[in-house]
Specification:
Strand order of the largest sheet of chain B: 6-7-8-3-9-10-12-11
Number of helices of chain B: 23
Largest interface: A-B, 85 and 81 residues
Strand content of chain B: 5-15%
Radius of gyration of chain B: 33 Å
CATH topology of the largest domain in chain B: MetI-like fold
Number of strands of chain B: 12
Number of helices of chain A: 13
Helix content of chain B: 40-55%
Mean pLDDT of chain B: 84
CATH architecture of the largest domain in chain B: Orthogonal Bundle
Distance between the termini of chain A: 9 Å
Shape of chain B: elongated
Number of domains of chain B: 3
Structural class of chain B: alpha/beta
Oligomer: heterodimer
């Protein structure tokens, strides 16, 4: 297993490089459509300002030189500074904004995966039963609703009408644990509901395949009881495709959390990215992409490692 | 022993239908639409699309107001539904209903832009990459997987910042991100199709690559593409709305659903939740409709493997058997019918009136071609009829007890303990995720109440008994580390673990070489003697039957056609089918491989021939054979299902073949 994990870690390096290259291409493409330096200097830019900024950002060097320099910078944690405020380090900005985002995404995945698996198993136990059919109908509806609409409904129903939680705002973890938990609860649920539905559907369908398999038939012929058939025989095999889907959903949730944060007035990565796009502040967007890319690579690594646990063939194969 | 049979048995008239017959009057296209229209969810989604289509093509026809017209008179803001404003008004007094109607156009335009990019970029790349294969394919797929793993919203953001925010640019971004989905799908289909023989044939005859792709691969790709496109359209709408909601999609005055939600997001807490309802509902209904449509198309094309199969065998009332059980039998089956509901509502009758008796200590050989119902008989007798099939008639008695209607929990106490089953496909019946030792220990732990350590020790002994070398080390291995022959021995060890009263062995020795095969059969007969175990031996291999069986049951087309002692069947079979089976037995059968085939095919269970099911392939068939199903008649101690059994006599088919002396 250790060898397998080591191998997966090595395989993550080219993935990181590829994400860095895609991110770098954004600035190249932006420059092709108009001067970045001109944007930094603002309207009525003096030629002196342009030359100075171009020199500072190294925009006159060849693209390979710039890419290697940029790679070196991000490898050492330097994501450059904001184009609008040359004194703000992008890494510092992200360091401030990432916590609410990370809290919501992680918490939502925790809720989503746990409840999704639970409901998937419940549905697979009595297929076609009342529980299965009602879960399926609700899941179909929830998958069709974007997190930000669910968020608005929750904010209105739970927070405004019932007054159980605050409708907007974020309390940092360091300030108050319960305050933090309360502030991320509604956004996390909003993001988690589609996750629950997605995980539930996948697990139900892969449980169905597993329960139909020859090995489950053979286990029944040995007198294995239904609970053990589901938990011990079908579930580990059904989890393999489910883990893949959870990985995809985790990546999607990182993107979709932007809208949910805005509903709840939380200044996280979402608001930062949207502002950077509107103001064409490319270094901030690039920094955000690198951080998201790192997270995605990390999630992929977790998915690969769980494959190893679930599937002995994968674990022993390498 | 002289044979009086006519030599026509060697070459029966090829009357057998070549393809499985479906009661097909309809073209696949008509069947598809009939299924779609019968599915209420599909009809719902299609109706919703119809409304949206009208709203897109002729919005002013159904809109009641100008979607941009503001009415800032105070009392006209934030209205709830009224006769004038059916869905109320927004913060500028604009009519929600009309804005939602005009929003349909934005939604469709979004799909058009994003989908044409996604398909236009994704499909050619997937086709080309899958077709070329090799290093090129790996490189393309690697890049594709990198893009695939990144959040779509983020990729779209990257495109938007370069091109500046607008709905078109947002959709270009979404289209590029979505193209990775189509690359994957197209490549997978291309890879699979490339291996098909007709594609090979086309290649050899020198048809150009683009023509092969266009003529053979794209048509096969189309159904999956349509299903995927429906579901991705929903995702495009959803992500498009998210981007517009974030303010980096459609223009902030446009009646786009995402923008409407963006506008109401800052005010709904004060002005009431109604502000998010019109656009929110339109959005959710549209995405839902796309998802439902995708599912419905998949179902209508019969592509869903998991849905109908999920049903665990429903307990239906089983009609009683018409005949009495034999009192001294260990296992007695009477008049068993098993049916499978087919796709278009027709029912396939897999088993028809199957009866058999097995006494303790006896070995019954069950023979017949694939599809004759041998394995299904055994599964159904144990309450293991695969869903959605069900036993509709008959009665099963085991060890003096009626087991026809036992619950799964009651069966669990009998299966594995009193009845052991050896399955075909030895690797497929082992759970790939569980160590082999733990799987062998399972029946011991469940039925004998052994501790983990004891069961493990016993499992090692069992493996040694079935001649698995190095059994202790093998316990900690996984099934994929076992060869077919070794896995088969594991299956045998599991079946015999609790020393059952009845052993059902479905092709127990096919995966094994001749020496081991002999050892395994010896092992089975050893347990048989010690425990007075009854054995049902299902096999293609008549050599094994000749060696091991006391009595033989011949099945054809889901029916029993003959039962007799092994001696009688080999010396003078009464049914033409039994005779034909013996004819195809190689002189020096080495015990491996399948039986050579009889001309023609076993007919499909949806369309049994009228009358005798073997008649289309039978050299002796007359008009009397096809008029009604022949009854199973008693002749001496044997049973035979043939109207001409008294007219035809078969002798020993191979003169120099001593009975019981094969293998």
């Amino acid at each position: 297993m250790a060898r397998y994990i080591g191998f997966r870690l090595l395989a993550a390096i080219p993935l990181l490089l590829a994400i860095a290259a895609i991110t770098f291409l954004i600035s190249v493409a932006m420059e092709a459509r108009g001067s970045i330096a001109g944007q930094v200097c603002g309207e009525g830019a003096t030629p002196e300002c342009i030359t100075a900024v171009e020199a500072e950002l190294g925009l006159n060097d060849s693209i390979p030189v710039r890419f290697t320099r940029w790679l070196g910078d991000i490898a050492s944690g330097d994501l450059g500074s904001s184009l609008l405020d040359r004194n703000t380090e992008v890494s510092a900005l992200i360091g401030e904004r990432i916590w609410p985002t990370l809290s919501i995404v992680t918490f939502s995945l925790l809720i989503g995966v746990t409840l999704g698996m639970l409901m998937g198993i419940v549905a697979a136990i009595r297929p076609g039963g009342v529980a299965d059919r009602s879960i399926s109908v609700i899941a179909a509806g929830v998958i069709a609703a974007p997190g930000f609409i669910i968020g608005m409904l929750l904010s209105w129903g739970i927070a405004v009408e019932l007054g159980w939680l605050d409708p907007v705002g974020y309390v940092p973890f360091g300030e108050s644990f319960t305050g933090w938990l309360k502030s991320i609860t509604l956004p996390s649920i909003a993001l988690a509901l589609p996750t629950i539905a997605i995980v539930q559907r996948q697990l139900r369908s892969s449980m169905a395949n597993a329960l139909q398999s020859r090995y489950v038939l053979a286990a029944r012929a040995r007198g294995v009881a239904r609970t053990s058939l589901i938990g011990r025989h079908a579930l580990p095999n059904a989890m393999v495709p489910t883990v893949t889907v959870i990985g995809f959903r985790a990546a999607a949730a990182i993107g979709l959390t932007t809208a949910v944060e805005i509903v709840f007035g939380i200044r996280g990565m979402g608001e930062m990215l949207v502002t950077s796009i509107i103001t064409r502040n490319v270094t901030v967007l690039q920094g955000g992409m690198i951080v998201v890319g790192l997270t995605v690579v990390f999630v992929n690594l977790l998915v690969d490692i769980s494959y190893g646990f679930l599937n002995p063939k994968v674990r022993l194969g390498r | 022993m002289t044979t009086e049979t006519s030599p026509t048995v060697e070459a029966p008239a090829p009357l057998a239908p070549e393809a499985p017959i479906e009661p097909a009057v309809d073209s696949p296209r008509r069947r598809f639409w009939r299924r779609m229209l019968r599915n209420p969810l599909a009809v719902f989604s299609m109706l919703w699309f119809l409304v949206l289509l009208v709203a897109w093509v002729a919005p002013d026809l159904i809109a009641t107001h100008d979607p941009f017209k503001q009415d800032v008179t105070l009392q006209r803001l934030f209205e709830t539904p009224s006769a004038d404003h059916w869905l109320g008004t927004d913060q500028f007094g604009r009519d929600h209903y009309s804005r939602v109607i005009y929003g349909a156009g934005f939604a469709f335009r979004s799909i058009l832009i994003a989908m044409s990019i996604a398909v236009g970029v994704g499909v050619p790349i997937g086709l080309f990459s899958g077709w070329k294969g090799g290093r090129f394919d790996r490189a393309v797929m690697w890049v594709n997987d990198v893009l695939f793993s990144l959040p779509i919203v983020l990729l779209a953001m990257a495109v938007i910042i370069v091109l500046t925010p607008s709905l078109t640019n947002a959709m270009i971004g979404v289209g590029i991100a979505m193209s990775t989905r189509f690359v994957r799908l197209t490549r997978a289909v291309t890879l699979a199709e490339k291996e098909e023989l007709y594609v090979d044939a086309a290649r050899i005859t020198g048809i150009s690559t683009p023509r092969i792709l266009g003529r053979y691969i794209v048509p096969n790709l189309l159904p999956s593409l349509v299903i995927q496109a429906a579901i991705i359209s929903g995702a495009i709408i959803l992500i498009g709305a998210t981007l517009s909601f974030l303010g980096i999609g459609a223009n902030l005055d446009d009646p786009d659903w995402g923008v409407m939600l963006n506008r109401s997001q800052s005010i709904f807490r004060q002005e009431g939740v109604w502000q998010i309802v019109p656009a929110g509902m339109a959005l959710v209904l549209t995405v839902l409709s796309f998802n439902l449509l995708g599912d419905a198309i998949r179902d209508a094309l019969g592509r869903d493997a998991s849905n109908n199969a999920l049903t665990v065998t429903k307990r239906v009332s089983v009609a009683a058997a018409q005949t009495e059980h034999s009192p001294d039998a260990l296992l007695s089956i009477r008049d068993m019918d098993v049916e499978f509901p087919g796709q278009a509502g027709q029912i396939s009758e897999i088993l028809n009136g199957v009866s058999l008796d097995l006494r303790a200590g006896e070995t019954l050989g069950v023979v017949g071609e694939s599809g004759s119902g041998k394995s299904m008989t055994m599964l159904s007798a144990l309450g293991l009829t695969p869903a959605p099939g069900r036993m509709t008639r008959g009665s099963v008695r085991f060890d003096g007890r009626d087991v026809t209607n036992l619950s799964e929990a009651e069966w669990a106490k009998i299966r594995g303990k009193e009845i052991g089953v050896i399955f075909q496909e030895p690797i497929a019946v082992l759970n790939p995720a569980i160590k082999v030792g733990a799987q062998i220990a399972e029946p011991l732990r469940i039925h004998m109440g052994m501790s983990k350590a004891d069961a493990r020790e016993r499992a090692a002994e069992l493996l040694a008994e079935v001649r698995v070398p190095d059994p202790v080390r093998r316990l900690d291995q996984y099934p994929h580390e076992f060869s077919g022959g070794m896995a088969q021995r594991v299956g045998i060890a599991m079946a015999l673990a609790c020393e059952p009263k009845l052993l059902i062995a479905d092709e127990p020795s096919t995966a094994l070489d001749v020496t081991v095969q002999g050892q395994i059969l010896d092992l089975i007969s050893e347990v048989q003697e010690r425990r007075q175990m009854g054995v049902i031996l299902i096999t293609h291999d008549l050599g094994v039957i000749a060696e091991a069986a006391d009595r033989v049951l011949v099945m054809y087309g889901g029916q029993v056609v003959e039962t007799a002692s092994a001696h009688d069947v080999f010396l003078h079979p009464r049914h033409p089918y039994s005779h034909a089976l013996l004819e195809t037995m190689p002189q020096n059968h080495d015990g491996g491989g399948d039986l050579p085939v009889i001309d023609g095919m076993v007919p499909s269970a949806t369309a049994w021939p009228s009358g005798c099911r073997f008649a289309p392939r039978c050299g002796f068939a007359t008009d009397a054979c096809v008029s009604a199903i022949p009854p199973l008649e008693r002749v001496d101690n044997d049973l035979v299902r043939c109207v001409r059994h008294s007219e035809i006599t078969f002798g020993q088919p191979v003169a120099d073949q001593p009975v019981g002396g094969t293998a």
